[in-house]
Amino acid sequence: MAAPAGVHDMIHHLIQAPGDRRLVKEDDEALFERFGVPADARPVLRTGYRDDLYALGIHPNLIMKWLIWSGRLTIKGFPISYYFDRR
Amino acid sequence: MGQIVGAFATSHVLGAPDGVEDQAERVFQGMREIGARLRALKPDVLVVLTSDHLNNFRVDVPAPFAVAADAVLTPYGDMGLPTDPIPGAPDFALGLAAFCAEQGLPVDAMDGVRPDHGVMIPHGVADPERQIPTAIFYVNSVLDPSPAPAQCWTAGALLKRFVEQQRPAHERVALLAGGGLSHWLAVPQEGRVNEDWDRWFMENLVSGHAEELTRLTNAEILDAAGNGGLEVAAWIAMAGAVPQAKGEILYYESLPSWASGMGGVAMSV
Questions:
Q1: ipTM
Q2: Cβ B17–A78 below 8 Å, yes or no?
Q3: Nearest CB to B187: which of A12, A54, A65?
Q4: Do A64 and B81 touch (CB under 8 A)?
């Protein structure tokens, strides 16, 4: 199943433009408009979790990024310094 | 001729230690052991074989194999990883890409690469001082098509020939593959780990039967080890550069809370 139009382009843009990632929480509509994301995909992008986004056809690695930027990642975070300070 | 002086493979992620402190520590100490052994070999060049996570490649532009051509590589900084630059090895990387192309294996040469955790966790543990010139050899398993195990073995064989035929005399090259083991990432099966398969895979690798892994298809790996399990492609490429070598499993932990089987091996080169 292919991802809805514009979704992969939108996430790829955010990978390269970290400053725009704030829009995911603050003005997602502007992002959706800019990348032509279909109206029926927007609610899922706005509130959906991993399986909802997967069902939409979004690439798993891009799902991870979207969930991180939208604050909905379910895998627990940690400071890398916990390990790297002891290398 | 140059020489491959060491070959290692490790999972290329770390996770939250909460609730799995002992396992997390064994993983980290296993990675540290790999790093210590690698540094003791005093390599002139470190080749990191791994997959990108769509931070440097687009999902709609297939690039099964690629090298980073940059003289200085600034990490992407995902997972909060340090972004201090690391020295690249552009002469090695570009030479490898050209050599592979001459032998019929297309390898893209990329500028402006910002290595993500797939490179920087194993590299960061292996070379904390960031001193070893590093050639990143991407074996991209997140793009469609993902390179088949047999292709990866061929890529490793070409890497070996390149080092032996094209590199300066006495150049010491260490290989560090990253990725795997079984994990299902951002899919409904996330959290599943196939420990039996992971151990079977590593046992083949360290018992001198790595070439048998080339009989696997990506569909079989996907079914048994998940979409993240396809990252073992980098391990197979590493093994192809040291054919018939046996090795040692340095660590293995099944960590569902990290959504991953975690393992590491050292080959006897």
A1: 0.94
A2: yes
A3: A54
A4: no
